Amino acid sequence: MDIALALIGLVCCVIGILGSFLPVLPGTPISWVGLLLLHLTDAVPMNYTFLGITFFIAITLVVLDYVIPAAGTKRFGGSKAGAIGTTVGLIVGVIAPIPFGILIGPFLGALIGELVFNKSDRKTATKAAFGSFLGFLASTFVSFFTACVFFGLYVYKLFQHSEGLF
Which structural domain, as residue segments, surrounds residue 60? Predict the structure, then answer.
Protein backbone atom coordinates (compact mmCIF):
# COMPACT_ATOMS: atom_id res chain seq x y z
CA MET A 1 0.00 0.00 0.00
CA ASP A 2 2.85 2.39 0.81
CA ILE A 3 4.43 1.89 -2.60
CA ALA A 4 1.09 2.58 -4.30
CA LEU A 5 0.61 5.80 -2.30
CA ALA A 6 4.18 6.88 -3.09
CA LEU A 7 3.70 6.21 -6.82
CA ILE A 8 0.35 8.01 -6.94
CA GLY A 9 1.96 10.91 -5.06
CA LEU A 10 4.78 11.01 -7.62
CA VAL A 11 2.25 11.08 -10.45
CA CYS A 12 0.41 13.92 -8.70
CA CYS A 13 3.64 15.93 -8.45
CA VAL A 14 4.37 15.45 -12.15
CA ILE A 15 0.78 16.33 -13.10
CA GLY A 16 1.10 19.39 -10.85
CA ILE A 17 4.09 20.59 -12.86
CA LEU A 18 2.11 20.12 -16.08
CA GLY A 19 -0.89 21.78 -14.45
CA SER A 20 1.08 24.95 -13.87
CA PHE A 21 0.87 25.45 -17.66
CA LEU A 22 -2.42 23.73 -18.46
CA PRO A 23 -5.47 25.76 -17.46
CA VAL A 24 -7.69 22.78 -16.70
CA LEU A 25 -5.42 21.48 -13.92
CA PRO A 26 -4.71 23.36 -10.69
CA GLY A 27 -0.97 22.64 -10.68
CA THR A 28 0.18 23.62 -7.22
CA PRO A 29 -2.70 21.98 -5.30
CA ILE A 30 -2.22 18.73 -7.22
CA SER A 31 1.49 18.81 -6.35
CA TRP A 32 0.52 19.35 -2.72
CA VAL A 33 -1.72 16.27 -2.84
CA GLY A 34 1.38 14.34 -3.93
CA LEU A 35 3.21 15.55 -0.83
CA LEU A 36 0.23 14.60 1.33
CA LEU A 37 0.09 11.09 -0.14
CA LEU A 38 3.77 10.59 0.59
CA HIS A 39 3.20 11.60 4.20
CA LEU A 40 0.33 9.13 4.47
CA THR A 41 2.75 6.25 3.95
CA ASP A 42 4.22 4.49 6.97
CA ALA A 43 7.76 5.22 5.74
CA VAL A 44 7.55 9.02 5.94
CA PRO A 45 6.56 10.42 9.32
CA MET A 46 3.59 12.76 9.34
CA ASN A 47 4.73 16.38 9.55
CA TYR A 48 1.71 18.62 10.08
CA THR A 49 3.78 21.81 10.09
CA PHE A 50 5.35 20.98 6.72
CA LEU A 51 1.99 20.02 5.22
CA GLY A 52 0.31 23.11 6.68
CA ILE A 53 2.91 25.50 5.28
CA THR A 54 2.90 23.89 1.83
CA PHE A 55 -0.92 23.80 1.84
CA PHE A 56 -1.03 27.52 2.65
CA ILE A 57 1.40 28.20 -0.20
CA ALA A 58 -0.66 26.11 -2.62
CA ILE A 59 -3.93 27.84 -1.74
CA THR A 60 -2.31 31.27 -1.85
CA LEU A 61 -1.04 30.58 -5.36
CA VAL A 62 -4.50 29.49 -6.51
CA VAL A 63 -5.85 32.86 -5.39
CA LEU A 64 -2.89 34.74 -6.88
CA ASP A 65 -3.48 33.06 -10.24
CA TYR A 66 -6.58 35.23 -10.49
CA VAL A 67 -5.22 38.34 -8.77
CA ILE A 68 -1.85 38.80 -10.53
CA PRO A 69 -3.23 39.31 -14.07
CA ALA A 70 -5.65 41.95 -12.75
CA ALA A 71 -2.78 43.65 -10.89
CA GLY A 72 -0.73 43.64 -14.09
CA THR A 73 -3.59 45.38 -15.86
CA LYS A 74 -3.70 48.14 -13.24
CA ARG A 75 0.11 48.48 -13.22
CA PHE A 76 0.11 49.19 -16.95
CA GLY A 77 -2.46 51.94 -16.71
CA GLY A 78 -5.65 49.96 -16.75
CA SER A 79 -8.70 50.92 -14.76
CA LYS A 80 -11.02 48.93 -12.53
CA ALA A 81 -13.02 47.97 -15.62
CA GLY A 82 -9.86 46.57 -17.20
CA ALA A 83 -8.99 44.62 -14.06
CA ILE A 84 -12.50 43.18 -13.86
CA GLY A 85 -12.34 42.39 -17.58
CA THR A 86 -9.07 40.57 -16.99
CA THR A 87 -10.60 38.36 -14.31
CA VAL A 88 -13.74 37.69 -16.36
CA GLY A 89 -11.60 36.98 -19.44
CA LEU A 90 -9.45 34.57 -17.45
CA ILE A 91 -12.49 32.64 -16.25
CA VAL A 92 -14.05 32.62 -19.73
CA GLY A 93 -10.69 31.61 -21.21
CA VAL A 94 -10.52 28.61 -18.90
CA ILE A 95 -14.08 27.54 -19.71
CA ALA A 96 -14.16 28.36 -23.44
CA PRO A 97 -13.16 25.51 -25.73
CA ILE A 98 -10.88 27.68 -27.85
CA PRO A 99 -7.16 27.03 -28.24
CA PHE A 100 -5.04 29.19 -25.96
CA GLY A 101 -8.17 30.59 -24.29
CA ILE A 102 -6.28 30.98 -21.03
CA LEU A 103 -3.80 33.25 -22.81
CA ILE A 104 -6.26 35.14 -24.98
CA GLY A 105 -9.03 35.53 -22.37
CA PRO A 106 -7.31 37.89 -19.90
CA PHE A 107 -5.89 39.99 -22.73
CA LEU A 108 -9.23 40.35 -24.51
CA GLY A 109 -11.09 40.87 -21.22
CA ALA A 110 -8.85 43.80 -20.27
CA LEU A 111 -8.99 45.20 -23.79
CA ILE A 112 -12.80 45.03 -23.95
CA GLY A 113 -13.16 46.38 -20.41
CA GLU A 114 -11.04 49.41 -21.24
CA LEU A 115 -12.53 50.08 -24.67
CA VAL A 116 -16.20 49.59 -23.82
CA PHE A 117 -16.60 50.68 -20.22
CA ASN A 118 -13.95 53.41 -19.99
CA LYS A 119 -14.01 54.54 -23.59
CA SER A 120 -10.20 54.40 -23.51
CA ASP A 121 -8.20 54.96 -26.65
CA ARG A 122 -6.70 51.89 -28.32
CA LYS A 123 -3.18 52.62 -27.11
CA THR A 124 -4.16 52.79 -23.42
CA ALA A 125 -6.44 49.76 -23.73
CA THR A 126 -3.75 47.71 -25.49
CA LYS A 127 -1.17 48.69 -22.88
CA ALA A 128 -3.51 47.56 -20.10
CA ALA A 129 -4.23 44.30 -21.92
CA PHE A 130 -0.50 43.71 -22.33
CA GLY A 131 -0.11 44.21 -18.58
CA SER A 132 -2.76 41.56 -18.08
CA PHE A 133 -0.82 39.16 -20.30
CA LEU A 134 2.43 39.85 -18.43
CA GLY A 135 0.61 39.28 -15.13
CA PHE A 136 -0.64 35.94 -16.41
CA LEU A 137 2.89 34.95 -17.46
CA ALA A 138 4.24 35.95 -14.04
CA SER A 139 1.53 33.93 -12.32
CA THR A 140 2.31 30.89 -14.49
CA PHE A 141 6.03 31.16 -13.74
CA VAL A 142 5.42 31.33 -9.98
CA SER A 143 3.09 28.31 -10.15
CA PHE A 144 5.61 26.35 -12.22
CA PHE A 145 8.45 27.21 -9.87
CA THR A 146 6.42 26.21 -6.81
CA ALA A 147 5.29 22.94 -8.38
CA CYS A 148 8.94 22.15 -9.18
CA VAL A 149 9.94 22.93 -5.58
CA PHE A 150 7.15 20.65 -4.31
CA PHE A 151 8.44 17.92 -6.65
CA GLY A 152 11.96 18.44 -5.31
CA LEU A 153 10.69 18.19 -1.74
CA TYR A 154 8.82 15.03 -2.66
CA VAL A 155 11.93 13.41 -4.14
CA TYR A 156 14.06 14.52 -1.17
CA LYS A 157 11.64 13.08 1.39
CA LEU A 158 11.18 9.92 -0.65
CA PHE A 159 14.90 9.20 -0.79
CA GLN A 160 15.42 10.29 2.80
CA HIS A 161 12.98 7.60 3.97
CA SER A 162 13.25 5.12 1.08
CA GLU A 163 14.59 2.28 3.25
CA GLY A 164 11.24 2.13 5.06
CA LEU A 165 9.29 2.21 1.84
CA PHE A 166 10.87 -0.54 -0.23
Answer: 2-165
The residues, any chain, with a CB within 8 Å of residue 39's CB and separated by 6 or more, are: 45, 46, 47, 50, 51, 157
Total tally of structural domains belonging to the chain: 1
Per-residue pLDDT of the chain (166 residues; tens, 9 = 90+): 788 998 999 999 999 998 887 766 788 999 999 999 999 988 888 889 999 999 999 999 988 887 887 777 778 877 778 778 877 887 888 787 777 777 788 888 888 888 888 777 888 888 888 887 788 788 889 999 999 999 999 999 988 877 766 6
Give the dihedral of Cα atoms 54, 57, 61, 64; nearest 10 deg: 170
Q: Are 46 and 166 in contact (CB under 8 A)?
A: no
